[in-house]
Amino acid sequence: MTQKNASVGYSQRIRLEWFEYTVNLILEGKDKTAINLALQEFLKDKVSVGGSAKGCNREKIISILRTVWLKPSNELEVLRNTGLNFLSIRPSLSIPNDLSIVIHWGMATATYSFWSAVASHTGRLLKLQGFASASQIQRRIRELYGERETVSRATQRVLRTYIDWGVLQETGTKGVYSAGKTIAVKDPQLAVWLVEASLHSRTQGSAPLNELLDNPALFPIRIKPIPAESLLNLSPRLELLRHGLDNELIILKKRNLSYDA
User: 200, 201, 203, 224: which is closest to 213 by C-alpha?
Assistant: First the structure.
C-alpha cells in the first residue's frame, strides 16, 4: 500500500535509555508538565545542544516520546497502560533490559506506521538473505512514502536507532547490517500484548495468526507459538475468524472496547 502523502512522524534517532527515562517519570507519577520539563533538562546536553528553537531535533524527540508513552491515541491507551504494567516489574528501573526493548518496540510499532514499515522491510531482508542494506531499505521506504529528503533522513535515523538498541549491527561493509540480539518471548501474556501491538499497526486491524507470530516488523523478537484459542482466552480484545483447518485470522475488536489491564 502506498503512503506517499503520509506523515513520517517517527523521524529521529532515539536511544533506549531515553524511552526508559520517560517511562520512569510516568511510573513516578509525574504530570505532563513535569515530564516535559524533565525531558528538556535531561536531553539539553544530548540533542540540539545550545538550542531550544521550536522544531529542533530535541523538540521532535520529546514529541515522539510523549506520543508513544504520555499521550497515546485513545485506541492505544490500554495497550500503553499494559506496557507500563510490564515495565513496572523490571528488576531495575535504571538499566534497560530485554523486556524494555520488547515493550518500547511494541509501542513504537503500534504508534508509528513509519517505524513499523522500516522494521518490516529490515526484518524481511534479514530473513531472506541474512543481511539488510540501507540502500535496499531506503528504496522500499521511498516507494511507500515518496521521494522526499525527509523520508531518507528519517529512515537512516530509525536504522541507527536499531543499532543503538543492539538489535541490528554493522558489518564490514558500509551500509550493510546483520541481525543483532534476538529476544525470546515465552510469556503468553506478553505474546498476546505483542500480537495486539502488531494488529494496531495494521490498517484493517486483522492478520493471520502465523503472520502475527512471525511478524518481520518485530524482527528482534521471537514469540513462542501460541494457539489461537489461548490468545482469545487471554485477551477479550481479540476475536478469531477461521477458514478451513489452518487459516486462522485474528481480529482486533472495536478499539474503544474497555477492559481490565
Answer: 224
End-to-end C-alpha distance for the chain, whole angstroms: 33
Reported as a single tens digit per residue, the pLDDT across 122-162 is: 999 999 999 999 999 999 999 999 988 999 999 999 999 99
Helix (H, G, I), strand (E, B) or coil at 239: strand
Q: Is the dihedral of CA 120, 124, 125, 130 positive or negative?
A: positive
Q: What residue type is assigned to position 25 of the chain?
A: L
pTM equals 0.91
DSSP symbols for 156-213:
HHHHHHHHHTTSEEE-SSTTEEEE---EEE--HHHHHHHHHHHHHTSTTSEEEHHHHH
Q: Which residue matches cell numbers 495486539?
A: 196
SS3 249: strand
Amino acid at position 10, single letter: Y
Rounded-to-integer distance, Cα 219 and Cα 194, Å:
12
Q: Among 140, 154, 123, which residue's Cα sits nearest to residue 7?
A: 154
Name the amino acid, one letter, at 234. L
